[in-house]
Design goal:
single chain; mainly beta; nine-stranded antiparallel β-sheet; three-stranded antiparallel β-sheet; 2 helices
């Protein structure tokens, strides 16, 4: 179905080793200017496809930060609905009622998953083995190639008084290494540190 939005990819380079390869390209996908939207360093609507990243969308409370219980502690929604005290704790934000959603994009693979313990469940299902402990993630694809995401990005929301909120959390994990299945070949990534501040304006 054509939506009237251009989606252009321009090959730039391909990193090749004995057993690994990583294509680099510029991708353009733009659906119109939005107030407050900032252009990337290569231009509005353009992105550089040259590495990989896992990003997190927080749902409810940040996974692992619930003072009392998390959503996975309750196998049945009736366990929550039938107890008034649990509902009160939910209102006080002491109980996390839903899992965060993680989105991944690397070397031709993209999708989303949730974490249950240290194990990931993709939806829809993909033939990928994803494990993580909150500090890093490891993805093994169908060929056995290993992708490690360990370079973290932090997000610190602003408090209502304009000061930095103490609730900074890991919002993204950048690809740090690609390893061949037999661990004899590897591509390493390094990143420069930078800080970005966004003003929250109402339109």
């Amino acid at each position: 179905l054509y939506e009237g939005m251009p989606n252009t990819s321009i090959p730039v380079y391909e990193i090749k080793t004995n057993k690994l390869s990583l294509p680099i390209s510029l991708q353009y996908h733009y659906n119109g200017f939005r107030p407050g939207e900032d252009a990337s360093w290569i231009g509005m609507g353009w992105t550089l496809q040259a590495y990989g990243v896992i990003t997190r969308v927080v749902k409810g409370l940040i996974d692992g930060r619930s003072p009392l219980h998390e959503w996975k502690d309750y196998a049945n929604i009736l366990d929550v609905a039938s107890f008034t005290e649990i509902q009160e704790e939910i209102k006080l934000k002491n109980i996390d009622t839903e899992p965060d959603i993680y989105f991944f994009n690397f070397n031709g693979h993209s999708g989303k998953f949730i974490m249950v313990g240290n194990r990931a469940f993709t939806f829809p299902h993909q033939d990928l083995k994803i494990t993580g402990d909150g500090n890093s993630f490891r993805i093994v694809d169908e060929t056995g190639t290993i992708y490690t995401f360990a370079d973290k990005e932090l997000t610190a929301p602003k408090a209502t008084d304009g000061t930095n909120s103490p609730d900074a959390f890991i919002s993204a994990w950048n690809l740090s290494t690609i390893s061949s299945a037999d661990l004899t070949d590897q591509i390493n990534f390094t990143y420069a540190e930078w800080e970005y501040r966004q003003n929250n304006n109402n339109y």
